[in-house]
Amino acid sequence: MAHTYYARVTQIGNSKGVRLPKELALSLGTTEVILEPTVDGILIKPAPTIPPLNQWAAIFAQADISPEPEFNDWDITLNDGLDE
Predict the structure, then answer these.
(1) E strand spans, 1-84
(2) pLDDT digits (tens, 9 = 90+) for 39-69
């Protein structure tokens, strides 16, 4: 069963903030989060991580580089009734 945590909204510079209990902060697995307003309150979820630059070459190597299918829609738009 999920544990309920309580926190106090505090002044942080010109903003307001909430300190997350350590257990919750560690469960996010990241230091960056997305705050999403909902009907019930604010949803805090982990932000997607961007892989380090040294891993990009391996990621791009796995990308699908097959040619795109023919774009037949272009041929259709040429005859859509517009005169030159």
Answers:
(1) 9-12, 15-18, 33-37, 42-46
(2) 999 998 888 888 889 999 998 888 877 776 6
pLDDT digits (tens, 9 = 90+) for 18-27: 988 888 888 8
Q: Which residues contact 42 (CB under 8 A, 6 or more apart)?
A: 35, 36
Rounded-to-integer distance, Cα 39 and Cα 34, Å: 16
- Phi and psi torsions of 64, nearest 5°: -80, 115
| CA angle (68, 70, 72) in 5-degree steps | 140
3-state SS assignment for residue 64: coil
Q: Which amino acid is at 82?
A: L
